[in-house]
Write the structure tokens for this entry.
Amino acid sequence: MTMIRHHLPDALLMGYAAGTLPEAFNLVVATHVSLSDEARARLGAFEAVGGSVIDDADAAEMASGSLDRMMARLDMLPQANARAPLAGDAIYPAPLLDYMTRGLKWQSVGRGVKQAILKTDGAASARLIRIPGGQAMPDHGHKGTELTLVLQGAFMDGNRRYARGDVDVATEETEHTPMAEAGVECICLAASDAPLKFHGLLPRLAQPFFKI
Ligand code: ZN
């Protein structure tokens, strides 16, 4: 199992357990959990708590005759099989493969960095990013929350190192320039709930075309 140093915040695991996250964030959580025994255990605990909350609501909902509504809520919970364990040392864990088989279109976003948008519903977007070893991501800010999960290689964000299974969480206040480590290409799964703001002129002009 991968040695993971940077975990998802509990709030995101809770949101996943409660079925309240946009699809793109669900995908990052499911992929992270598939790489981390610890994250899977924490998620299990939150799901157990969520289950007991539903059990409590059960009696009241039954009494008011709204079984259908309760069943609808249960349907919204994430499926257990979405977190199948990683087979072998494949780069892309199982939760991601489903999205990838729908077809990936890699686009160049400058400096040798490529990205492929994954088709997800809701208020957030997900993409795969490939950064050549030693290369930096273009300068950018965020208008929301950005999750970046490493699948291959590693990058530095400030003085923190992120390797396979680690998640970098950036918010509106974050201004950072993640830098891929020299050597193997760094491949990441990223999700954001608002378009990224790139500062350089060319990236800013290109932004509408890349939907990032
Ligand atoms: Zn960022």
Summary: Residues 73-88 have pLDDT under 50 and may be disordered.
